[in-house]
Amino acid sequence: MKLINIFTKITTIVVVISTFLSCDNDFNSVGSEIIGDVNFEDSQYSSIPIAYSRRLERVQTSRLVREIGSNNQLVNHANLLGVYEDPAYGQSIYSILSQVRLATDNPNFGENPVLDSVVLNLPYFSKEINTSTSNNVTIKTYKLDSVYGSRPFKLSIYQSNYFLRDFDPETNDRQLYYSDDAVTKFGSEIEKLNLYTNESFVPSPSEITLLGPDGPDEDTNQDVTKSPPALRIKFSDAVKNSFKEQFLDKQGSSELSNSNNFFNYFRGIYFKAEASGALGNMVLFDMSKGRITLHYTSGAGTPVVREQKTLQLSFTNNIVNSIKTDIKPSIENELKIDVQDSIKGNDNLYIKGGDGAYAVIDLFKGNVLNENGELEKELSYLRRKNWLINDAVLTFYVNQSALTSGGATEPERIYVFNKETGSVLADYASDVGFQLKNEEEPVNSILSHLGRIKRGSDDKGEYYKIRLTRHIIDLLGDEEVDNISLGVSVSQNVNATINAVGVVKNKNNTPKDEIIPSSSIISHEGTILYGNGENVPEEKRLKLDIFYTASKKN
To answer: What is the superkingdom listed in this entry's lineage (predicted)?
Structure first.
């Protein structure tokens, strides 16, 4: 075992070293003829990109794939539920509509089945922080992770009667669902039967303790089962009776015979969040870990011997996040298509997760004064200079004067991508962190290319540095390479590079599909960055710094 571990580590080191060597060879591809010349010097060139923002009208919120796992299995993103008050942008409300699947097709409930209870269990993300013992009882203390805010919101859980289909009947493509479908498409059908309502829901970090019948041990006490914190609800008798009719009384029916029939019969569960005050809280759930469990007994004979059994329903297949964001009017006005200037750029860049906004960056679109005192296209000028590019860094400064509250509410990471294709840039794969991604804490992945926010002593964000060295080398070194527009978004997980669809409006007010990162859609945070506008302080203006080596003859 130790030998295998050592070999694995050596292999990883070799891969990383190989990556560095290959990158180093690539870096020398621009201006490589000057390496042997002692008559050269290091210099810096600064370029001001054109930058503006795009407001998202709605975003895809179904089938949001985080990664492709082992055996080509698609691993979906987690889902948000609750009310989040962004200090700069305003309130967002996230609800969840999910299909459920039977653990077993055509379940056999046995003879004379009796439903005892129906229980929902949806685990929170949590960490065990302490273990203690009292009277021979072990007590675990947990800290909840991925919970934003501490104020209550109204939580209602419904059985839905809206059928979430798998394929679009017009195109036969996979059916996509969007952030506004709950309002514009689903309607009251998703609130068929109220299962539960909590007027003031706040997630609890307490360990769950369950008392069950005495098992086959030596004592006569009830058995105790403990589990990490979760949204756990034992539904009312009215709900239990409804589930009895829909499940136990349907034994052997076509409705329970297979998944397709069942999806159409029992159409899903809707978790509805509503604001119950100015603030609220929001929780990230891995829906694949959630279960609705039917606890029942069945048996026959004389005397009757009843056996305890369960039937589980899992949340799966089509899971849709409803997102309703009321962006503050001042920012909403700034994001209008006729205010955002794709030719000259804007003072502020608005990037907000979910159905918010992202920024567009255009490099080298203007003219510069060349060595002959003539105007020349900047890209042509830079390509002609034939410099050896050592580094290239794009710096985004945070506009703290536009943020009513910074610090913890500011996104830790932003994400840069090819706006046309949604793909990552070349620097993503050349980042040493690409080989050693931090899957447990994605906030610490790909740090050279997509730098974390730099915070001041007051914990407020100062800037983000994005390294574009490989991208600039490729762009300047090959005239066949297109000068693509770059997209900039908030990201909850920079390891996730699979894209989704966002809808924006064109100048003529018609909708247009755009490719956006899925990791932005599941991000709730937002920030405001300085752009390139004329009202931006010189020291805060968005700029690209290129560090290069050139012959003194140039």
So the answer is: Bacteria
Q: Is the pLDDT of residue 63 over 50?
A: yes
Largest CA-CA distance found in the chain, in angstroms, rounded:
106
Residue 543's nearest CA partner among 395, 357, 354, 437 is 395
Give whichever of 129-143, 375-389, 394-408 has the largest mean pLDDT.
375-389
Instruction: Read off the tokens for 18.
Output: 């190989």
pLDDT in tens, 174-203: 999 999 999 999 999 999 999 999 999 999
Rounding to the nearest 10 degrees, give the CA dihedral for residues 198, 204, 207, 213. Answer: -10
Distance CA 281, CA 154 (A): 10
Q: Could you give the C-alpha distances from 455 to 130, 247, 256, 466, 526, in angstroms and in order?
A: 30, 55, 55, 15, 16
CB 102 within 8 A of CB 257: no
Residue 55 CA to residue 57 CA, distance in Å, equals 6
CA neighbours within 13 Å on the CB side: how many for 420? 5
Task: Say yes or no to pLDDT of 172 above 70.
Answer: yes
Q: Report the C-alpha gap between 394 and 465 in whole angstroms.
A: 6
Spatial CA neighbour of 61 closest among 73, 79, 75: 79
Please list, in sequence order, all residues whose beta carbon lies within 8 angstroms of the beta carbon of residue 474, skipping any fewer than 6 positions away: 426, 481
Q: What is the pTM of this model?
A: 0.89
Q: What b/e readout covers 200-226, taking b as 16+ CB neighbours within 10 angstroms?
A: ebbbebebeeeeeeeeeeeeeeeeeee
Residues facing 549 on adjacent strands:
42, 388
Backbone φ/ψ region at 509: left (φ over 0), alpha (ψ -120 to 50), beta:
left
Residues 6+ apart with CB under 8 A from 412: 443, 452, 453
With tokens 């255009």, the residue in question is 362
C-alpha to C-alpha distances, 171 to 2, 58, 227, 503, 514, nearest whole angstrom = 54, 21, 45, 19, 19
Sign of the torsion angle spanned by Cα atoms 298, 110, 238, 81: positive
